[in-house]
Protein: UDP-N-acetylmuramyl-tripeptide synthetase
Organism: Agromyces intestinalis
Amino acid sequence: MTGSPPSALRPQHPSPRSLRGLAEAFGLEVRGEIADLEVTGAALASGQVQGGDLYVGVPGRHAHGADFAAAAAENGAVAILTDSDGAARAAAAAPELPVLVTPDARAALGAVAAWIHRTDEQSATLYAVTGTNGKTSVVYLIYGLLRQLGLGAGLTSTAERRIGDEAVTSGLTTPEASELHALLARAAEVDVRGFGVEVSAQALTRHRVDGLVFDVAGFTNLTHDHLDDYSSMEEYYEAKRELFTPERARRGVVTVDSEWGRRLVGESRIPVTTLTTLPDVEADWRVTVIDETAAATTFRVDAPDGRALTTSVPLIGWYMAANAALAIAMLVEGGIDLDRIAQAVERDDGIPAYIPGRVERVSGDRGPLVFIDYGHTPDAFLQTLRALRPLVPGRVIMLFGADGDRDTTKRAEMGAIAARGADIVVVTDFHPRTEDPAAIRAQLIAGARAAAPDRELHEVPDPREALRRAISLAGQGDVILYAGPGHEDYHEVNGVKLPYSARDDARQALRDAGWPA
Ligand SMILES: CC(=O)N[C@H]1[C@@H](OP(=O)(O)OP(=O)(O)OC[C@H]2O[C@@H](n3ccc(=O)[nH]c3=O)[C@H](O)[C@@H]2O)O[C@H](CO)[C@@H](O)[C@@H]1O[C@H](C)C(=O)N[C@@H](C)C(=O)N[C@H](CCC(=O)O)C(=O)O
Ligand SMILES: Nc1ncnc2c1ncn2[C@@H]1O[C@H](COP(=O)(O)OP(=O)(O)OP(=O)(O)O)[C@@H](O)[C@H]1O
């Protein structure tokens, strides 16, 4: 998400389709005159409607989208697709706007958007990645590898939507189906051969990836998160498992390091191949980390057919090797020969991946190492602290907060893991949204105190000041991990997104402290 409204990548030369044809194809009830109307796109938010769009009005938590029919019409919508309740609302709000009625407009949207954008004729290989942590990373690694192979590539992630070199900042992790199909249509215009999609559990639950079948689905891991949206880990798992069905994907690659991954293999309804980083776990693909430095992680991948590849990623931590290996295995499952990948990575001396805000180093060659990370789950904290510890002789200083209005049950555990794994913790504010920021900090601190009562702990509400405090405590040979903000460029307080880039601020704070950055 961004401080300013995210823009979207859409086809530049859409071929209009008849609205009458759409109504007939989907058996939609029509209210109003649509005889000569043509449609070129679809949008689920009135503010995102462009001329020629079908506006899709769905009920939400706060409002019914059909209530915004007038704004959609003003922006150029040719008609509204909505349910019967929405039809009555639309008639009141924008009597001139034709209405197409369907029982559940959100459920219809994927197929409708695919029809409008002709994405059922898609020729790019589609890769979907799900799991709690690592989705964005794997999607960027797939994109990086495809480009390395000389193939046109695209991606959608929490950080960006990207087609070739063209990128826009993301709103949701997984776009609504209207945006996703428009992206794929744009990708087809520029001959993208492979496209990576980060698929959240919410996307599967909310029809966002409807209207397409992925060629390869990948699974990273499943750990505590989103227990505000799902009532239990079981329910959260079941939402993710949905990706491994023939309606959603043709084949899969499952990381079996976790119990959830092993269970998924048994319950998948599509053929899957397995991957592990653990020596004592059975799997088709095996990943062995060879070397970890502050600049790169080197690893070996053993394929099921006996071939192997040794390479590196300019990313920190064993899990980036796991993420890169998953990307490689998914490409192989998608039809790319492993030897071709091996030649490309050997030629370039590794995989040239850049993942915005994922354990991203902002410090220079003197002073403390400073990494900005997007980790906001207990497991991401744990794994990243583990990855960083061996990189420095000195202390690990961890700076973090926790999202307001999101899963509150993970906070104590996040505090505990930080206090156990770091030498100094600095607790700050991170998107308090509508919650009392002091209460969020108190939950984190309670978790930290319970786990490591003697740990040096600083509570500094303002993130800018907190970062300066962390830097003032650090010297050469120490590392600062600032977990949470990652690539983001805002700090959300009470519904207002204030401009704030942790990466820029950290570089400035380092320079102010006399270190290069
Ligand atoms: C809880 C949830 O899923 N909310 C989603 C929902 O919003 P809502 O129900 O609150 O919508 P609402 O405000 O009642 O409005 C209803 C409808 O009217 C439309 N509207 C509203 C106002 C207006 O002026 N014009 C207009 O058209 C809205 O676009 C919406 O379609 O419909 C919106 C429109 O698509 C989504 O943006 C919004 O996602 C919110 C931002 C969200 O945070 N979702 C989270 C749960 C989420 O999906 N997260 C996952 C996982 C992240 C991860 O990887 O960790 C993700 O994929 O991002
Ligand atoms: N394979 C992994 N296992 C555990 N932790 C990981 C893994 N990969 C990345 N991480 C950690 O999780 C954080 C988020 O990584 P990434 O953005 O790739 O995951 P994600 O699944 O896309 O998360 P989100 O959906 O919240 O964007 C990283 O910044 C890092 O701290």
User: Anything to note?
Assistant: Residues 360-512 form a domain with the Protein-Tyrosine Phosphatase; Chain A fold (CATH 3.90.190.20). Residues 318-333 form the longest helix (16 residues). DSSP finds 16 helices and 26 strands in the chain. Confidence is low (pLDDT under 50) at residues 1-6.
